[in-house]
Amino acid sequence: MSYPDTMTNDDKILHFPDGIPGFQQCTRFMLMDMVEDGAFQMLQCVDDPDVALVVCIPWLFFPDYTPEISELDESGLGLESAEDAIVFTPVTLDPEGQQFYVNLLGPFIVNAKSRQGRQIVLVDSNYPVRAPVALMSA
User: Fold this and answer.
1) pLDDT tens, 76-117?
2) What's the CATH code, domain 5-132?
């Protein structure tokens, strides 16, 4: 099932030609705000509305995050400079809903100009797959 054309705007669609791990059949996504000015967004598959991932901009929680992608990934994405890259990371929540984690080892990198992206693994990195983020208590 696809979204009607009125719900998608081609210049806002992010293309993941190889899909993303676990969802190789899904290649077209949109970033959608979950709440206005919120820290989290939904990476929603355009072609399969049942596929969506919560993501965030990692620097909101980890200001010293400095992912270094390989030359192969840079070339494959057509990145000419760091400013060309949009970076966001997958988010998971523990089963009790008490703790959430950011995957700093496997960020999504998107070329801002071409809107082509992929999820990469930061080889030779010590970043965790599950970096805990402290929840603010009321």
Assistant:
1) 999 998 889 999 999 999 888 788 999 999 999 999 999 999
2) 2.30.290.10
